[in-house]
Amino acid sequence: MRWLITGASGFTAQHFISHLKAHGEDVFAISTTLDTEIKCDFQDEAAIKVLLQKIQPERVVHLTGVYGTDPKLAPLFKDVHVTQTENLIRGCAAMATPPPIALASSAHVYGNQGGRISESAELVRISEYAASKIEMEALAKKWSKEAPIFVARSFNYTGTGQSEKFLIPKIVQHYKDKASKLTLGDISIERDFSDVRDIIRYYMAMFEADYAGQIVNFCSGNLISVRDIVSACQEITGHELQVEQSASLMRPNEIQVLYGCTDKLVELTGLKPTITMKQTLASMLQS
Hints:
This protein is about 40% helix and about 20% strand.
């Protein structure tokens, strides 16, 4: 099977590529920041069509993305998540046999709604980032008759190799360094965390399911608090540190509980999480 993976330098793509290669798949990876064998400017629609005709991918996973909270990044979000995504879809649709395409969206499209969130929940343009992802999802509907596409709305997930700018890697690194103090925001909030390896399992299974036109939550359906993550790291390492909660790291009107509904994911793929958060933390602490 020939796979085209975009955003090859990213955390998710690195795990995805390793998984595919370990299973003997033929992988073509594209990145704007990593030195990969395949080069392509996704702003150049003609170049994309030439690339696709050359490698003839049988499955496409579009993981290219940027994240940020600065409203000034709006043009970048629009370019990467909307313009470049449509260029890729258009190129795939022009192939004799359009390959199935997976688009990586985000639970950020649900805005500040709390509780258990299903795919039918209202979409909220809470930020420029979320707005660009909502527009990207609209492309899937727009092109649904020309190319088979599904959208993965991922909730929080983590694993080895994720940047320390994210919460769990930050906590893990403090325990690996045997730090004496850890400064966090509200440690009582509860979120839906998955292991990146389970997320990849969901992508793989969706390609085997009745995927065309589907929008699916990629999540665990389970809740874990930041306090529980800290406690698990302490239990695994035996190291104790002082946890301080800083008001500067707390968001106004923070949602206390947020997790995803897995009903549709289970219906389409039959899959549930296989890796517990404690197992994820242990692998990160040992890496």
